[in-house]
Write a structure and sequence with these properties.
Blueprint lengths: L7 E6 L1 H4 L9 H16 L3 E6 L7 H6 L4 H25 L4 E5 L8 E2 L2 H9 L3 E5 L9 H12 L3 E6 L4 E2 L11 E2 L1 E2 L1 H7 L6 H9 L4 E5 L5 H6 L6 E3 L2
Parallel strand pairs: 1-2, 1-6, 2-5, 3-4, 3-5, 6-10, 9-11
Antiparallel strand pairs: 7-8, 10-11
Length: 238
């Protein structure tokens, strides 16, 4: 296998990616395919921290839009990420990938509490670490949690795997003439509010010199291609 460009990364997966075509919950086949590819990355010698969204089960912002208290809705969304983390842990360990789940919300019966130095030690020892529970505080997205963990553990890149093949100047599902960007500077993403991630996440990555790669998770091999530095998806960096 070709040499990987990065030795330690944070991989951000949306919760929606786990539900496949089901519309809700977790599709076991999709989960297994994702686990298969992630294990290949670990076997290539890359240290991987994984952050999962919870939108396949509950989205805090959506709950708040229906009248629920925003803080309560966000906590429910954080708990949804724990369910996804445990499912992913099972899929990874079934493939003999040593995995630990660390939660920003204390629930010691199912996950270790998030401690930065402990997370770094686990990564150094070859464990794949799944960070769940968001940031542990409401009003922050799992994108921000991914950027925060990337900065804390010294990740060299943040890979955001989505259902689209990169960043566009408009919604490609609505506008067939939308233009895809292959490369973007952080300043342009923030100035144009391109909805790659929320601005807090983009700002964290910019300030810590962490490039972001946005790519299509559903195309097999894309994670490996991104780690080799190949022109996949959209690269965001200075």
């Amino acid at each position: 296998m070709a040499e990987m460009k990065y030795k330690r990364i944070i991989l951000k997966l949306s919760g929606e990616a786990l539900m496949g075509q089901a519309g809700y919950g977790i599709d076991d086949l999709v989960l297994d395919e994702i686990a298969k590819e992630v294990v290949q990355v670990v076997q290539a010698g890359v240290q991987v921290g994984l952050v999962l969204g919870g939108g396949n089960i509950f989205r805090g912002f959506k709950g708040a839009s229906k009248g629920m208290d925003r803080a309560s809705a966000d906590y429910m969304g954080m708990l949804a990420t724990v369910l996804n983390a445990l499912a992913m842990q099972h899929a990874l360990e079934t493939r003999k990938c040593p995995t630990r789940v660390m939660s920003a919300i204390s629930m010691t019966a199912v996950a270790e509490p998030y401690i930065r130095q402990r997370a770094i030690q686990l990564l150094d020892r070859g464990y794949l670490v799944i960070f769940c529970g968001g940031t542990g505080s409401p009003f922050f997205t799992t994108d921000t949690a991914a950027a925060l963990r990337a900065a804390e553990v010294g990740a060299e890149a943040l890979l955001k795997a989505t259902k689209v093949d990169g960043v566009y100047d408009d919604d490609p599902l609505i506008n067939p003439k939308a233009k895809k960007y292959n490369k973007l500077p952080f300043a342009k993403v923030m100035a144009k509010d391109l909805k790659v991630m929320d601005l807090a996440a983009v700002s964290l990555c910019r300030d810590n010199g962490i490039p972001i790669v946005v790519f299509n998770l559903l195309k097999p091999g894309n994670i490996i291609r991104a780690l080799r530095g190949e022109p996949v998806g959209t690269w965001i960096k200075e």
